[in-house]
Amino acid sequence: MPRKIRDLISDLLKAGFIDRGGKGDHRNFVHPNVTKPITISGKEGGDAKHYQEKSVRLAIEEAKK
User: What is the pTM for the complete model shown?
Assistant: First the structure.
């Protein structure tokens, strides 16, 4: 069962990412140790796509380095 968008956002915020906002259902997150911003699209109660879960996981790993 896929995770919810709100879970991905929570994970990013706990890892120290900052929400820069966005247009519509898009949110951009930045971190000083991560080269590219992470964009999460969709409503908070919606299911996350596999590529979104993977990009969040990789970004959090990069932030820990």
Answer: 0.91
Distance CA 24, CA 39 (A): 12
> Token match 């990009």: residue?
55
The CA distance from 34 to 47, in Å, is 25
Distances (CA, A) of 47 to 1, 3, 36, 44, 61: 9, 6, 23, 8, 22
Angle in degrees, CA 16, 43, 51, rounded to 5 = 65
pLDDT in tens, 1-30: 889 999 999 999 999 999 999 999 999 999
